[in-house]
Amino acid sequence: MKNNSTKLLQDLAAFILAAPKDPSSLKTAAEMVRAERDYRWIGIYKIERGDFVIAAGTGDEPPAYPRFPKTQGLCAAVAETRETLIVGDVRKDPRWLPAFWTTHSEIVVPILSEATGQVIGVIDVESEKRDAFTDDDRDFLEHVAAVMARRLCTAKKNGAAKKKKKNAPAH
């Protein structure tokens, strides 16, 4: 992994620990990763009620599918195998659900719960170039996913606590 990427992982981990647990901080984290490697687009999807739901994405354009079933797309293959998937030409893969029609290659990395090992989300990185992603990207993004797991787990716990509090009986 590139030396400057190691520094970013340290900065990202510190940011995730210190940042408020809201969607804007997750978007900032995604932007940090995008800028580090000059990726065109990064989406962080969490799994919610059997669907992939966009938690944060870089840029101002939303993806074509901000929510889709956990059984569809390249993300579904990653959720099933719990392994990173690199597709050099997405247009040749029948599982591809386009976030952007200009995409030619994609890497999807599982975000695994530290507690259960289950897939709780994915990092989806897209490029307009064919065969844009390497093993170095895989290594880097798998480290990013490990850092993001803490953030997604914290968000789920906070969301569950808020729902519990909201539904608590009045005294």
Task: Give a quick rundown of the structure.
The chain is α+β, with helices and mostly antiparallel strands and 171 residues long. It has helices spanning 3-18, 23-37, 73-81, 135-167, and strands spanning 41-48, 51-57, 67-69, 85-87, 105-112, 119-127. Helix 1 (3-18) runs antiparallel to helix 2 and helix 1 runs parallel beside helix 4 (135-167).
Q: With helices defined by DSSP (H or I, 4 residues minimum), what is the helix count? A: 4
- Count all strands and give the number: 6
Distance between the termini: 55 Å
Globally, the shape reads globular
Radius of gyration: 16 Å
Low-confidence stretches: 157-166
Q: Order of strands side by side in the largest beta sheet?
A: 3-2-1-6-5-4
Largest sheet geometry: 6 strands, antiparallel
- Fraction of residues in H or I helices: 40-55%
Mean pLDDT: 88
Strand content: 15-25%
Q: Structural class, from helix and strand content?
A: alpha+beta
Name the quaternary structure: single chain
Spell out the helices and strands N to C.
Answer: HHEEEHEEEH
Structure description:
The chain has 171 residues and is of the alpha+beta class. The chain has four helices and six strands; from the N terminus they run ααβββαβββα. A hairpin with a 6-residue loop joins β5 and β6. α1 packs antiparallel against α2 and α1 runs parallel beside α4. The longest helix is centred in the last third of the chain and has 33 residues.
